[in-house]
Design goal:
about 130 residues; Alpha-Beta Plaits; 5-stranded mixed β-sheet; two-stranded antiparallel sheet; alpha+beta
């Protein structure tokens, strides 16, 4: 049964509790560092336009579900104009899953990518 409670990891010397916000923030940072990603987006569209989130609230672009077996994530991103969107999405899936497993020891069951928009790069004359 999915839950959004914290993740608890036990070790012979004690235990570590990870809040969902920590997991979401790390996932968002990993995603935003991928080539071709302009940034994280809010989950919904306002008047058909995706909201580009600033670094202080990147985790709003992540929908995290914590389950007994691991975590499932929905990423909401804006990609850069001119990239192969499918390639960026596949890179995101792998980078976020590997990063969470490496840095937090969290088993990642699923990473879904939702491309909310495309953003022009600075100086390409297409606007923002």
């Amino acid at each position: 049964m999915p839950t959004n409670s914290s993740l608890l990891r036990t070790h012979p010397l004690g235990s570590v509790e990870l809040s969902p916000r920590v997991v979401s923030t790390l996932a968002a940072r990993l995603a935003s560092d991928c080539e071709g990603v302009a940034g994280m987006s809010g989950r919904g569209l306002r008047d058909g336009i995706a909201e580009l989130l600033n670094r202080e609230n990147f985790e709003r672009g992540i929908d995290l579900r914590i389950e007994d077996a691991g975590v499932r994530l929905e990423l909401f991103v804006i990609v850069e104009h001119g990239v192969r969107v499918l390639d960026v999405a596949h890179t995101l899936m792998g980078a976020v899953a590997a990063g969470l497993e490496r840095h937090l020891g969290v088993r990642v069951l699923e990473v879904n990518v939702n491309v909310q928009g495309i953003r022009a790069r600075e100086g390409d004359g297409l606007g923002h």
